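New to this. Help decode the following:
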Amino acid sequence: MKLKYLAVILLSVCLVVGCSNDKKETNSNQKENTLHVAAAASLTDVTKDLETAFKKKHSDVDITFNYGGSGSLRQQIEKGAPVDVFMSANTKDVQALKDKKKADNTYDYARNQLVLIGEQGTDLKSVKDLKDGQKLAIGEVNSVPAGKYAEGYLKDNGLYSSVK
C-alpha cells in the first residue's frame, strides 16, 4: 500500500518537475506525446511502477527513460538532451541545473534511509555491533549519494575510522 501511495505522489511530482531545453526539436520518428524522463539508476524499480500508474490515466503518452548516474544525466541535460523530467538521486545536480537555468520546477520527491543489511540469522543491529574481521560495504563516497550519506553517518557516530 505504501508503494502505491508513493507511486502516486511521485507520479504527481513527475508531472510538474521539468527541465528546460532551448532546442525543442521534434524527431519525425517520435510521437509528439512523449515524456522523456532522465532518472538515477537507483530509481529504476520505482519508475516502472510510476509508468504503470501514469499510463492508466494517460494512455496516449509514451514515456522514454534514460537511466544513469545523476551527474552524468545532469551533464546530458546541460548539453541539450531532450528531457522533460529529471529524477536525481541528490540535490547537488538539481541545483546545478537550476543555477544554469536548465530546470524550471523542482521538488523533493523522495527521501533516503540508510539501512544495515546482513546475512540471514545475523544478530547485528548496528554498525557498532561489527566485530574484528567483519566487513562493511558502502557506496562509493565520491560519486554515489548513498555512499556519501553512509560516510556522513559513520563519521557523525565516530565509527568511520574503525570500519575504514
Observations:
- The chain has a mean pLDDT of 81.
- The two ends are 38 Å apart (CA to CA).
- The helical segments are 2-16, 44-57, 70-78, 91-99, 145-156, 160-163.
- The first strand starts at residue 18 and ends at 19.
